[in-house]
Amino acid sequence: MVVYAGQGDARRSMALLWRGTAAPERHASPGPRPELSVDLVVETAIAVADEEGMTALSMRAVGERLQRSAMSLYTYVASKNELIDLMYDHAFAELAEAVEHETDRDWRTATTTWAHHLWRFSLRHPWTLQVSHARPVLGPHEYRVFEALALVLHRAGLAPKDIRSAFGSLYNLVRGLVRTSAEARQAQAATGMAEDEWWYARSAQLEEVAPDFGDRFPTLTAMAQEGAFTNTDDSEPYLEQEAWETLRFGLEALLDGIERRLTPTADTRT
Question: What tens digit of pLDDT does each residue of 200-222 get?
């Protein structure tokens, strides 16, 4: 399921996104029905998406949690499309706050930590991975995340256009790999079959249907014999562990490439 941002009324949606950057009120529950507000509707919608996924999100589902009718929410948020934009940027405030605390570290550490924060954030809110980045939400917290990384790379001496490209490369590396990790976590609930059970069943069948596998794919076979596809941590699903290891490798390779493009600056945090 792919969701495209910015499908609501542009003027209204942008005004709501940029209505203020103060921390939202936290509302206790259960208890008497709280007074509705944009922040409360958005926070409740995030809770629905975190717990049940994007497919469960609807104005009715949010209203039920708030003990209100779906119609009563439209005074605050005009449509589900507008709600998703607000949810996405509101959730990103959590990530922005985390990465902004890292900008004074050396650039490689700060950039690596930025990527790790994005990874953990995406696993906490996997529904955000379904919001296409082809059309960004363009909210303040999304920009804060970009600004934090841009500041680190600017101080390190990376050219403006290279900063833009580095952000895209790092963001999409993390986003692509964390999607695999999130899906690995959800697979058992969605299919009713544990990951190890799934792999063992199909591996056994592969040996039967392709007895000449080693001859046809000698490099992959040699890699398997060297342990390239072995799960070294049985407490984690194989695909989740593989995605994390690939992220670490990709980050190191990307940072090595970025380092070659740096120009000397007066800033000492390089």
Answer: 888 888 888 999 999 999 999 99
The residue to which tokens 């695999």 are assigned: 180
What is the distance between the alpha carbons of residues 77 and 84, in angstroms, rounded to a whole number? 10
Q: What is the DSSP string of 220-254?
A: HHHHHHTTTT--S-TTS-HHHHHHHHHHHHHHHHH
Q: Domain 10-87 falls in which CATH fold?
A: Arc Repressor Mutant, subunit A (1.10.10)
- Alpha helices, DSSP H only, in 53-193? 59-65, 70-73, 80-100, 107-124, 140-156, 160-191
Q: Kindly report the CATH class assigned to 104-260.
A: mainly alpha
d(CA 65, CA 63) in angstroms, rounded, equals: 5
Per-residue pLDDT tens over the stretch 79-118: 999 999 999 999 999 999 999 999 999 999 999 999 999 9
**Domain range summary for the chain, segments of one domain joined by +:** 10-87, 104-260
Asked if the domains 10-87 and 104-260 are classified in one and the same CATH topology, the answer is no
Q: List, in sequence order, every residue forming a beta bridge with 131; answer none if it has no partner.
A: 3
The type of residue at 183 is: E
